[in-house]
Amino acid sequence: MDGGHYGEDLFPPDRSGEAERIDYGALAYDAVSRARLAALGVGPGWRCLDVGAGTGTISRWLAEEAGADEVLALDRDPRFVRPAQDSRLRTMAADITDPALDPGRFDLVHCRFVLMHLPQHAEVLARLAGWVAPGGRLVVGDALDLTTAGSPHTAYRRAMEAMWRVLRDTIGTDITWMTDYPHILSRLGFADVGAEVVLPPLTVDAPITAFWRTTWLSMREALVSGGALTAGELDDALDYLSSPSLADLSPGMITAWGRRPGP
């Protein structure tokens, strides 16, 4: 069900270009995440945990620009986390689904594009909540597709729908519950709960367009061999992403946040 350790069969970490594919997603959304974290007051004096750190773009920003005292970048495979300019950033290789995992208590726990891939997301989210120190913040983000079903471009629509279906069948990805984030955080005892949705521009030269292109190419065999999509449909969809006629809305990201009551 996990598609080879949460998708490694679909996206092998050692495959050439995998770090770049992850970075395209970061380029599409990092400005949004940084703005939200800054608005919540992250800065000097904070201890921060970045869960599912990827290539470490948010972790490095927390250490180098936000000025947090300590940043822990946690990932199953933290090899892509490039070091910061000083020792305030450290990495930890760990499986977030391990119930024995306890990295400590933090003023910020940030988790982006992780929970959507975990069938046990409710249990993991509750565990993340437990790592937030009194007065600290929990910030979570995941994909939200509000746009694919309405696309008039058949190949694009079918490719995006096939991608979500293959991710669901192989990894367990579920993007149907994300609009409940504010209610979930409230039930977990957080105050000052808020949420926002961002749809990045889907233009030929946009990072999110490159992310979808490289993601579909990485998944090509799974998309075609399983019958979710024909090779011709996938090629048409890829051509569309590079075409001047590209005129669609990308799936976006929902970010939700809350404060644990306390000093």
TrEMBL record:
Name of this chain's protein: Methyltransferase domain-containing protein
An annotated GO BP: methylation
Lineage: Bacteria, Bacillati, Actinomycetota, Actinomycetes, Kitasatosporales
Keyword Methyltransferase: yes
GO molecular function, one term: methyltransferase activity
Keywords, comma-separated and alphabetical: Methyltransferase, Transferase
UniProt-listed PANTHER family: PUTATIVE (AFU_ORTHOLOGUE AFUA_2G14390)-RELATED, TRANS-ACONITATE 2-METHYLTRANSFERASE-RELATED
InterPro entries in UniProt: Methyltransf_11, SAM-dependent_MTases_sf
Organism: Streptomyces sp. 900105245
Methyltransferase listed as a keyword: yes
Domain Methyltransferase type: 49-140
Pfam family for this entry, one: Methyltransf_11
